Amino acid sequence: MWQGVELGEVVAALGGELHGDPRRRVTGLASLQSASDHDLSFLSQAKWQAQLATSRAACVIVAPDFLAAAQARGDCLVVDNPYLYYARLTQWWVQRKLEDSDQMPEPRIHPSAVVAPSAQVHPSAQIGPLCVVEAGAVIGAHTRLVSRVTVAHGCVIGERCILHAGVVIGADGFGFAPSPEGWVKIEQLGIVRIGNEVDIGANTCIDRGALDDTVIEDGVKLDNLIQIAHNCRIGRNTAIAGCVGMAGSTIIGANCTVGGQAGFVGHLTLVDGVHISARTMVSRSILKPGRYSGAFPMDEHHAWEKNAATLRQLASLRDRIKALEAQAKGA
User: Fold this and answer.
1) Is 230 marked active-site?
2) pLDDT tens-digit profile of 179-196?
């Protein structure tokens, strides 16, 4: 039975300045709103400060600017970046619970997994239920395939990666040549190369390259239900939200972010430090860092219809303005 940890243990492991009782025991992590008097919580943004005063949390992780407000309600732990501290706390917390539990360790390779004899699986890697690792694939150290993950032939997964349920690495890219008799399949001859410390969300698909490889660099974080087509390259530490679709040969730089449901037409390049808003259609290369948006804002339906009708008339309005400008110059 999990007995929790003392606040002093948290500080000893992760640092921070505790204002309160180091012997106070906490048994859970929770939001400010839902926390009980046995939970550890955190305040990451000023807009949630109103919840701080009423939170029942045993202790709250806060930035130095909120020390006085936090002390007014009880114990607090002061750190420079509460959200980053919370992220590291969750990792430590899970590991600590595992160490204190009486559960039997999971098998390194689940009995229901299918691993080809020529695949290379590091002794520290974990292959979960119903996973498939095909011939010649490589799975790096401390990497975990959660369940129903497929790593196709020859693909390479680096170290300390997590591939969640339903991920498919190395399916054929969408390549067909038209002919009078119909479409002729182009064999996809590349592989997928995934770097270290990459997280890939459930049911995300990354296609193998047509000739060159599809490459996901170190530290990339991919959400659920993302499609990355053949010959794409995702730069180091880029994060991509759910339902993004990326056509072939798209190159994304390092330290980029992509909002949910954004789309890429393919054969384009984004430099480092580009941030794409949700539902944006990226139809050209972006060669200057910054934030880019292309979504049509939500509105009441009748107002949206009027705006949409106006958009359809923009081309004719442009032509009329050009004609009037030409008349004015000739007068």
Assistant:
1) yes
2) 999 999 999 999 999 999
